[in-house]
Amino acid sequence: MPWWSWILIWIALVAVSLLFYVLLGIRLYRQAMAVMKDLGAAGTKLGHLAPAMASPTTGGLQRAAPDQPGAAVFASPAQMRHDYDASKSSRRENRRQRRVQRKSDRGQPQSLRDLDLS
């Protein structure tokens, strides 16, 4: 093999690696632009929500309505704990009421006290 063949081989290797890095850079740039486009769309979508609006009369922040999405982020932990406990006890009471109703529909007593053992 003549000495200049090694030069051609190295030139080809460097050219292929540069082509690989250029294509990788183009792919990375396109992905970054897609991510930026998605972030822009998400920013405009979240910009319309405005969960905590400034009150012109008080100068402070008004609390967002609890049924609005994202309102839990701006609520205090004590308020969220209270809401969680209240909804938990409400669900528990609703289950108990349904259970009592099912048993009364079937004619089953709620406890041993309700049995007529005489």
SSE-based structural type: mainly alpha
Major β-sheet, in short? none
Report the C-alpha radius of gyration, rounded.
34 Å
Which assembly state applies to the chains in this document? single chain
Low-confidence stretches: none
What proportion of the residues is helical, as a percent range?
A: 55-70%
Count of β-strands: 0
Strand content: under 5%
Q: Which shape, going by the Cα principal axes?
A: elongated
Sketch the topology as an H/E string, one letter per element. Answer: HHH
**What is the CA-CA span between the terminal residues?**
114 Å
Average pLDDT: 83
Which features does this protein show?
elongated
3D architecture notes:
- With 118 residues, the chain is mostly helical.
- The chain has helices at 3-47, 71-74, 77-106.
- The N and C termini lie far apart (114 Å).
Question: Brief overview, please?
Answer:
With 118 residues, this protein is an all-alpha fold. The protein has helices at residues 3-47, 71-74, 77-106.
